[in-house]
């Protein structure tokens, strides 16, 4: 049974003050999961299948702009889902243009209404939040909308919105608290700038926007904002899409430039000031060059910061239970069974050190972890050759090594890169960019020309890449690829 | 040698051109004959064959036009202020499509020229095993001799000759893509998937379309004798998949007249066509009028005019198709055949191209690689697309027994359908595997948007002997439709609800 302790009459609390926390003899729960996102919920639902007593604690600390959201984590609320839907809205803008060439008639200039789109998307997200609540309830997983932090061995404190505190104990814990957008630490950033945490529910059209950053978040957001008809500028400190194949990254940038996105390269903002109030208001951004002393200024309705994300690991009491974190990055190192240095505490998702920050990875890791804990499985999460897709205006799907990393690991003479441009059939009639879509595979000559990297730039890149990822997992070689017949006419046959 | 050319290819379509260009790469002297006998309607076209002119290419473009109509409706939900309904003008689309096709004709001519392949626009027929003669359109006779000859003349749509008025008043896919004016209220009469695809895009651009079919969709494939049981395209006999596809079409406005057989077509004073048919279920005769009747009741090779008997090339007596071995060789030495004209092969551009290329490599490039016709992936571009690779469920059961196979399946909802409030009830995935141990994947079937893009990579997987467990170990890409393949957990055997719920 759950034991709720009031602060005043709690002997354990008193002992905590003295720094001595006893290990409980029996636990309230088999498993407590801190964080109700992709990884956390997947683990919770799986554990419930094995009849375990599970609790999920989820809490969203409001953004500096005061924004918050429901159960489901980043992906559902301020990540993959709204991002892809806004990307779709932007793509539809392009298809409206194409459709005229295919015989559809409409004379009026088509405009986009931000509120209509955002409302539809938020409604859908709301239904997902609700769906998760119901799913947890049906599986008899206890859900607490409260901020969880460790206070001692096997014990966490949950603080809800009203400030009420409760203590819970569990045999095991999974930390799945994810990340939040980083701020620049310059004057005006928290007061006037927004992040992806705010963008998807912004109650007014962002207008002329400056996106600071060159991560996939920055480029995806800049991409769809431009596609919706807004004036967008991206300020990049150095390179685009760090960590991704740079040849592909540059092609993405070129495409965006050709399609109306402005880029300011090698500058960082040093100050943001408000010039005019409103929704949106008018902001003045001062930026300094990274290569000299040049200072520039610009005015924008909205400044969107997308310079990286920080793991939520600093304020959850990890020191109280001795869980090590990387002091610089805040990420948690785990072994190949997602176990931290404290045997009964595990971690999954974006907070893990040296693992990909992807929803499906977190889900897979969470599920498999629980199956190992409670169902006698020995299967570990396979982090190798995880495919991913960046939903920029020209989508980029990838699996395996980038060209640079392959050269580094195997040596240039030992790899062969096969590549091709292609023109999607659907782009021919509306005369859309010829020779922009591109695909390449990287093969290891010494290992039977095994395909070790796959990269495609074109429409529906995610749909195309998924199957190739499966094939790569099966050890696909160039010969097998050559002997496979294409489906005609689709992009994937390239 | 005494023959003018090392290689003569009769037929400038997918297979023929691929073979010719590949042979030219080896420095060989190559000639291509291409000729389009005008359709009964008088439609004709340039070099490139069926795919480029009256097949895959214009079909997919018109399919895209229809999809864009759907996108226009979705766009409102995503915030675009476009007032409905939006009207479609056939001639604008047709011109765009036809211009592109013509650019491809031009491109092929250029490529042949660059590769120094001689092109003759003549209709050839054999006079001896190394000699082909033919007449140009102007009536001039040309004779061509070659060491090796490849027949790649493809097929043309059949007419149901037992239906009075079929040839005079009906059109086929040969004509549809070249119509300058809208076909209006259309009745595609159906056995092949071609009819479903056409009906699909015609409905999508706003035309009143009814599909008439003799029995259940795609069951007709078994009876269409151009498909041998051994090398069936994965979607033949796929009853379940066929009904999902047609359900979707019905909910979007295509009308179906099932188990009906047309008996006659007459022209009315208004220039409309009156069609009379027998309704097998009700055992009655019914009638209705249409602007256009399109026959899609099968395709047949045009081998008669080739004069094959003169040289002894054996054909299948029922289908008229040329019998070839694994080398693409006919019964006559030095005469080969590739593409739709060959017996027992899938009728796909991609297999024709691959076979043509490999043949050229074997003839001139010291290769011994044979064409692998197994596990050829394909896609039907109906409004809700159906892509597949490998065995159908029925074929797997037939081959291994239902106890030895496991079928994983799921009904899923594409993310983009949510905000657009589109119906996703027919979006479905099915993986057919062997039941034992690793559970090797035998077939994958996907109904949904961009089905071709989804299936292609998994076709590679099948070629690598992918197993169910390997697919499950592959992490999904989120959010896509394809990731649902990596999340298949429910088996048909379990009888559990296969609807995907949430993330």
Automatic annotation (TrEMBL), chain A:
Disulfide bonds join 75-80. The keyword NADP applies. Keywords: Disulfide bond, FAD, Flavoprotein, NAD, NADP, Nucleotide-binding, Oxidoreductase, Redox-active center, Selenocysteine. It catalyses: H2O2 + NADPH + H(+) = NADP(+) + 2 H2O; [thioredoxin]-dithiol + NADP(+) = [thioredoxin]-disulfide + NADPH + H(+). PROSITE patterns: PYRIDINE_REDOX_1. The active site is at residue 488. Residues 386-493 form the Pyridine nucleotide-disulphide oxidoreductase dimerisation domain. Its cofactor is FAD. Signal peptide: none annotated. GO terms for molecular function: flavin adenine dinucleotide binding; glutathione-disulfide reductase (NADPH) activity; NADPH peroxidase activity; thioredoxin-disulfide reductase (NADPH) activity. Residues 29-366 form the FAD/NAD(P)-binding domain. The keyword Nucleotide-binding applies. Reduces disulfideprotein thioredoxin (Trx) to its dithiol-containing form. Homodimeric flavoprotein involved in the regulation of cellular redox reactions, growth and differentiation. Contains a selenocysteine residue at the C-terminal active site that is essential for catalysis. Also has reductase activity on hydrogen peroxide (H2O2). Belongs to the class-I pyridine nucleotide-disulfide oxidoreductase family. This is Thioredoxin reductase 1, cytoplasmic. It comes from Certhia familiaris (Eurasian treecreeper). The lineage of its organism: Eukaryota, Metazoa, Chordata, Craniata, Vertebrata. The gene is Txnrd1.
Automatic annotation (TrEMBL), chain B:
The keyword Transferase does not apply. It holds the Pfam family Pyr_redox_dim. This is thioredoxin-disulfide reductase (NADPH). GO terms for cellular component: cytosol; mitochondrion. NAD(+) binds at residue 298. Residues 5-356 form the FAD/NAD(P)-binding domain. FAD binds at residues 60, 124, 340. Keywords: Disulfide bond, FAD, Flavoprotein, NAD, NADP, Nucleotide-binding, Oxidoreductase, Redox-active center, Selenocysteine. GO terms for biological process: cell redox homeostasis; cellular response to oxidative stress; glutathione metabolic process. Residues 376-487 form the Pyridine nucleotide-disulphide oxidoreductase dimerisation domain. It comes from Certhia familiaris. GO terms for molecular function: flavin adenine dinucleotide binding; glutathione-disulfide reductase (NADPH) activity; thioredoxin-disulfide reductase (NADPH) activity. PROSITE patterns: PYRIDINE_REDOX_1. InterPro entries: FAD/NAD-bd_sf, FAD/NAD-binding_dom, FAD/NAD-linked_Rdtase_dimer_sf, GSHR/TRXR-like, Pyr_nuc-diS_OxRdtase, Pyr_nucl-diS_OxRdtase_dimer, Pyr_OxRdtase_I_AS, Thioredoxin/glutathione_Rdtase. Belongs to the class-I pyridine nucleotide-disulfide oxidoreductase family. Its EC number is 1.8.1.9. Its cofactor is FAD. Disulfide bonds join 51-56. Binds 1 FAD per subunit. The active site is at 478 (proton acceptor).
């Amino acid at each position: 049974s759950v034991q709720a302790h009031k602060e005043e009459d709690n002997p354990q609390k008193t002992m905590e003050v003295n720094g001595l926390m006893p290990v409980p003899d029996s636990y309230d729960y088999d498993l407590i999961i801190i964080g109700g996102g992709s990884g956390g919920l997947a683990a919770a639902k799986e554990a419930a299948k094995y009849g375990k007593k599970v609790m999920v604690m989820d809490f969203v600390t409001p953004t500096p702009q005061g924004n918050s959201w429901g159960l489901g984590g980043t992906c559902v609320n301020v990540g993959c889902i709204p991002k892809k839907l806004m990307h779709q809205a932007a793509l539809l803008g392009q298809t409206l243009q194409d459709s005229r060439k295919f015989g559809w008639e409409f004379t009026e200039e088509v405009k986009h209404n931000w509120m209509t789109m955002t409302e539809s998307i938020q409604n859908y997200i709301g239904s997902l939040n609700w769906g998760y609540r119901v799913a947890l309830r049906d599986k008899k997983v206890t859900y607490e909308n409260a901020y969880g932090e460790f206070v001692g061995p096997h014990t966490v404190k949950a603080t809800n919105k009203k400030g009420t505190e409760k203590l819970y104990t569990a045999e095991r814990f999974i930390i799945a608290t994810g990340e939040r957008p980083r701020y620049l630490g310059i004057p005006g950033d928290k007061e006037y700038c927004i992040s992806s945490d705010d963008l998807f529910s912004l109650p007014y059209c962002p207008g002329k926007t400056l996106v600071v950053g060159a991560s996939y978040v920055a480029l995806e957001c800049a991409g769809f904002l431009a596609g919706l008809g807004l004036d967008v500028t991206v300020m990049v400190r150095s390179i685009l899409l760090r960590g991704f194949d740079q040849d592909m990254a540059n092609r993405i940038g070129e495409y965006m430039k050709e399609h109306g996105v402005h880029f300011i390269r090698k500058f960082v903002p040093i100050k943001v000031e408000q010039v005019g109030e409103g929704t949106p208001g008018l902001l003045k951004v001062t930026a300094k060059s990274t290569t000299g002393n040049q200072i520039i200024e610009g005015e924008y309705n909205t400044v969107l910061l997308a310079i990286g994300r920080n793991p939520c690991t600093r304020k959850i009491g990890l020191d109280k239970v001795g869980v090590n974190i990387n002091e610089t990055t805040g990420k948690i190192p785990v072994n190949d069974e997602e176990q931290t240095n404290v045997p009964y505490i595990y971690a999954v998702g974006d907070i893990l050190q040296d693992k990909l920050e992807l929803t499906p990875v977190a889900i897979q890791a969470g599920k498999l972890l629980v199956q190992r804990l409670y169902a006698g499985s020995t299967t570990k999460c396979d982090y190798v050759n995880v495919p991913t897709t960046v939903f920029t205006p020209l989508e980029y799907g990838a699996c395996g090594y980038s060209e640079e990393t392959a050269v580094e690991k195997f040596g240039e003479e030992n790899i062969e890169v096969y590549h091709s441009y292609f023109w999607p059939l659907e782009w021919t009639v509306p005369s859309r960019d010829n020779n922009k879509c591109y695909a390449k595979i990287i093969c290891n000559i010494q290992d039977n020309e095994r395909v070790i990297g796959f990269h495609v730039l074109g429409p529906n890149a995610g749909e195309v890449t998924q199957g190739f990822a499966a094939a790569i997992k099966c050890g696909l070689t160039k010969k097998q690829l050559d002997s496979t017949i294409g489906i005609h006419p689709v992009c994937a046959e390239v | 040698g005494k023959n003018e050319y090392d290689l003569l290819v009769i037929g400038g379509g997918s297979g023929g051109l691929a073979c010719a260009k590949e042979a030219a790469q080896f420095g060989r002297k190559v000639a291509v004959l291409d000729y389009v006998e005008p359709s009964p309607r008088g439609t004709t076209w340039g070099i490139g064959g069926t795919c480029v002119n009256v097949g895959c290419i214009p079909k997919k473009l018109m399919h895209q036009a229809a999809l864009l109509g759907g996108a226009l409706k979705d766009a409102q939900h995503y915030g675009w202020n476009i007032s409905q309904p939006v009207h479609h003008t056939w001639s604008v689309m047709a011109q765009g499509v036809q211009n592109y096709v013509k650019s491809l004709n031009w491109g092929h001519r250029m490529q042949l020229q660059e590769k120094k392949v001689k092109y003759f626009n003549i209709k050839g027929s054999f006079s001896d095993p190394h000699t082909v003669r033919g007449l140009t359109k102007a009536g001039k006779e040309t004779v061509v001799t070659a060491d090796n000859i490849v027949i790649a003349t493809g097929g043309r749509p059949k007419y149901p000759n037992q239906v009075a008025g079929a040839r005079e008043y009906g059109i086929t896919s040969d004509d549809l893509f070249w119509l300058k004016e809208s076909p209006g209220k259309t009745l595609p009469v159906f056995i092949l998937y071609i009819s479903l695809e056409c009906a699909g895009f015609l409905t999508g651009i706003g035309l009143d379309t009814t599909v008439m079919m003799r029995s259940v969709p795609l069951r007709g494939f078994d009876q269409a004798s151009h498909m041998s049981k051994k090398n069936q395209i994965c979607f033949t006999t796929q009853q379940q998949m066929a009904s999902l596809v047609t359900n979707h079409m019905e909910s979007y406005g295509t009308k179906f007249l099932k188990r009906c057989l047309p008996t006659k077509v007459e022209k009315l004073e208004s220039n409309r066509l009156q069609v009379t048919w027998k309704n097998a279920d009700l055992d009655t005769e019914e009638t209705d009028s249409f602007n256009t009747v399109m026959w899609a009741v099968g395709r047949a090779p045009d081998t008669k005019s080739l004069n094959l008997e003169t040289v002894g090339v054996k054909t299948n007596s029922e289908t008229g198709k040329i019998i070839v071995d694994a080398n693409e060789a006919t019964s006559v030495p030095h005469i080969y055949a590739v593409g739709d004209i060959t017996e027992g092969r899938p009728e796909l551009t991609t297999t024709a191209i691959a076979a043509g290329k490999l043949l050229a490599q074997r003839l001139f490039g010291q290769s011994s690689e044979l064409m692998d016709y197994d596990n050829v992936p394909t896609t039907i571009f109906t409004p809700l697309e159906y892509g597949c690779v490998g065995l159908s469920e029925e074929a797997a059961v037939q081959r291994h027994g239902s106890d030895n196979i496991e079928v994983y399946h799921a009904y899923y909802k594409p993310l983009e359908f949510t905000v657009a409030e589109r119906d996703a009830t027919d979006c479905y995935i099915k993986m057919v595997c062997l039941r034992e141990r690793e559970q090797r994947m035998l077939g994958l079937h996907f109904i949904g948007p961009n089905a071709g893009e989804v299936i292609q990579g998994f076709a590679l997987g099948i070629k690598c002997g992918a197993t169910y467990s390997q697919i499950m170990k592959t992490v999904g890409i989120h959010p896509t439709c394809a990731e649902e393949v990596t999340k298949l957990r429910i088996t048909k055997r379990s009888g559990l609800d296969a609807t995907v719920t949430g993330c």
